[in-house]
Fold this sequence. Notes:
heterodimer; A: alpha/beta; 11 helices; 54% helix; B: alpha+beta; 68% helix; elongated
Amino acid sequence: MRVIVCEDLALLRDGLVRLLESHDFEVVAAVSDAGAFERKVEEREPDVCIVDVRLPPDFTDEGVRAALEARRRHPGLPILILSQYVEQSYARELLAEGNGGVGYLLKDRVASPAQFVEAVRRVAGGGTALDPEAVSLLLGRRRGDERLDRLTPREREVLALIAEGRSNAGIAERIVVTERAVEKHVSSILGKLELVANSDDHRRVLAVLAWLEGS
Amino acid sequence: MQPPTSTTAGSPTTAETAILEPSPSPGRRVARAFRRAGIDLLYLSLGLLSAIVAFVVWVAGLSITLSLAPFIVGFAVAIGCAYVFRLQADLDRRLARLVTGETIERRYREVPAGTGWLGRLRIVLGDSQTWRDLAWLVVHSVVGFGLGVAAITAVATVLGLIVAPAWWFYLPDGEPMTFGIFDVDSTGHALLATAIGLAAVPLALALLRLMACLESRIAHALLAPHSRRELEQRVAHLATTRAGLADASRADLERIERDLHDGAQARIVALAMELGMAEETVASDPEAAREMVARARAEALTALAELRDLARGLRPAVLAERGLAAAIEGLATRSAIPVSTRMRGDLDDLPQRIEVAAYYVVAEALTNANKHSGATGAMAALERAGDRLTIEVTDNGGGGADPAGSGLDGLRRRVAALDGTFELRSPRGGPTTIRAELPCG
Lengths: 215, 441
């Protein structure tokens, strides 16, 4: 799988490259600024891009803007944004177009290489990877909503995992239950939240997010 | 309760105080009145002279400035002219001392060091005191002249009247002396003149007093800082420096955030990643895992060092522990290029905020010298003279420092917030000198 890494700090860039290469990714370019990133996207036709939010010269949100621009020119190009902290608006902008193949993770997640790599693969496959931190922020903001209060603690846990972009199989593995049990939880959750159930992982995530983000 | 008496122990009573400062005897009072009158006369006479000079100054100043106004040189002349007005005004401020016992306070809008001609012109012309100086010169050249002439005439007349018999005695016969109101043409008249003159003395004293007070009143009204105006300016100044301080702390916060983000935080992420990979590899390839752990440990140590530096940048502990001089020596020692230091005056007894500002000025200047200037050496000098602390850092690098750069601009604001002045001289080709003066009274 061909990856482009865009991260301005050499230390993290090299680390990411080593991590990805040790998991059989082919890093076709590792760049440090938005301009180089956009050029490499044209040249190297990556399967997935990993982009830091803050890039030179202003260190604000150049990475997100460059990623959105790249997706505008290559619809559906999978992008995983890495950030030092959770900023709700970035996640919303990325998810807004509803095409899938997006991820938004804290840099902390690289500490668990296996899970990080899984997230990269999920995004590359058109799925979603939303950081648990971002999800709990969303869930936290909706506290007091009576429909959310109807959920059991177990269902809330499952809901958070759905929002992160995990499949039923992934959730089952995570909370150590059978896939069948997860399916039951999911349909119960979607029912309580009055959302239309469907089998597509990404649509499911979007439905949950749309509900969480809606006022 | 008994009224306090002089035998009562304790603090001096009202009675004692009265004894210490007796009310003046009639004789002394008269002597005082005469001395006062003498000073008033001196004031009004000097005022007469200064009025003549003032007339020349404002007429010449205005006509030269107005005739040159269409030309570039007119700017310089206008500024020069305003400064000449100030010289004259300063002289009159000092003269006022004869009446009130103190020089009139002088306050002009400050022109920061390094201001260009146009900026200086704007500040000088925008200073209401410049225009009040001019008003003073015009008014004084008329009123001061009139009062001076009147004072001298009055005194001369009175003295003339009193000594009329002596004059009369020595004058050739038949030549009457004219005093305006009446002529002295006999010994009787001459003696009458003495009587009138003596009677007029209190009047003359009162007149002198009145005129001297009038002149000094006008001088105060036009030459002393305008109290409301002054308050407004002070408020405006405080608002600017307050904003400067807020900006400086915001800039500090941003710098700290950047340092954290690019430094320790990134290292800890890298360290966590390294450990994560090591955990994955340890079973299959222990040797590779060991390498990763070693790298992780190195990252941890570097992150620690960076955090320590950051904390030191926030509040240099060495300042609190060992004082400014030692802290500056510390900065010089840590610098990659050799730095010589020179410290003069008492640096141990400075207000804390001044100490911290001085430390930052030197720290930032040396950081710039190390990072950007290409210098091979630098010198940091601190000198305290009275209530002023002067800080000067010079490097022998390539110059061309950007005064709007975040570090230097932050310093400028920090210094301005403490009512200090900040100057950067960094011509292309070097050398670069940063100079700050801080009031520390």
